[in-house]
Design a protein that fits this description.
By secondary structure, the chain is of the alpha+beta class. The protein has two domains: 30 residues; 234 residues, no CATH class. It is 29% helix and 23% strand. Strands 1, 2, 3, 4, 5, 6, 7 and 8 form an eight-stranded mixed beta sheet that branches. It is globular and about 65 Å long.
Length: 266
């Protein structure tokens, strides 16, 4: 009987421990009221426009957006030695020798592939004050992809080019300030692990972005993608597919699609 009581006691202790762990995990995963968490509502769904406006109003008021910790995870890069990151890279990264980046401590890099083409590169640096800054490049001419954004969402300027600044602040105090812009067929992101709203770091972040020289595309002779048209809702207007296609038209359609999505098409 004593053994049974002793065993039951440990079972209840175990159940209690599991409950505490489960509560901790759920409390970390669940967004706090007022925080944005996850990808948000899908465009076109009921309430999407209202949710977008609430976020814009918060940014106008505070200079940043409150988010859950999970929303900052994508900015944590597993850096490798630069020699490994440069292996089989499909484009020439922008040169940093004559920029302020050259004065920072390099903490490594990481390359990513699109359809087996290594066209994306992250480079990490530590600033003298200890802040970590990450520069991301994507040469879209190397893999045939493209990106389009509503001009209304890019009120900032980097060397005259439209840009977007997003400042994200989590409840625990962690923050990311993220700049993004496109120069020709090179897409850039630059972020720092700090809230730059109302801080001298904001000017430093823009100065770093502006210091980058012009990039050299991997495929300078590619056929440029068709310009995207945006509708009143701020979303791209997609061309409707043809109602029907003959066999020859279908073949031509597939050939054109493959040509547009072939790396270094020209």
């Amino acid at each position: 009987m004593k053994k049974s009581i002793h065993t039951s006691r440990w079972i209840w202790i175990g159940i209690g421990a599991i409950g505490v762990i489960a509560y901790t995990l759920l409390s970390r995963a669940a967004p706090v009221p007022g925080e944005s968490c996850g990808l948000g509502m899908a465009p076109g769904t009921p309430g999407f426009a209202a949710a977008e406006e609430r976020e814009r109003a918060e940014v106008r008021k505070n200079g940043f957006l409150h988010v859950c910790e999970a929303n900052l995870e994508r900015y944590k890069i597993s850096f490798e030695p630069m020699s490994r990151a440069y292996e089989d890279l499909a484009f020439p990264p922008v040169e940093l020798a004559r920029t302020p980046f050259s004065q920072f401590k390099s903490i490594g890099g990481m390359a990513e592939g699109v359809s087996k083409t290594k066209s994306r590169l992250y480079r990490g640096f530590q600033m003298p004050g200890g802040h970590i800054v990450t520069l991301f490049e994507h040469d879209m001419s190397a893999d045939g992809t493209s990106i389009s954004r509503n001009p209304a969402d890019e009120p900032e300027r980097i060397n005259g080019m439209p840009a977007r600044l997003s400042v994200l602040q989590a409840g625990a105090g962690d923050a990311i300030s993220h700049l993004s812009w496109t120069e020709g067929r090179r897409y850039y992101e630059l972020w720092i692990g700090a809230n730059v709203a109302g801080s001298p770091l904001r000017e430093q972040l823009f100065a770093l972005a502006s210091s980058l020289p012009r990039s050299s595309p991997a495929c300078p002779n590619e056929i440029p993608p068709k310009e995207v048209v945006f509708g009143p809702d701020g979303m791209p207007v997609m061309e409707p597919p043809p109602a029907s296609l003959t066999e020859s038209e279908m073949k031509a359609y597939v050939d054109e699609f493959n040509r547009k999505n072939t790396p270094c098409r020209g």
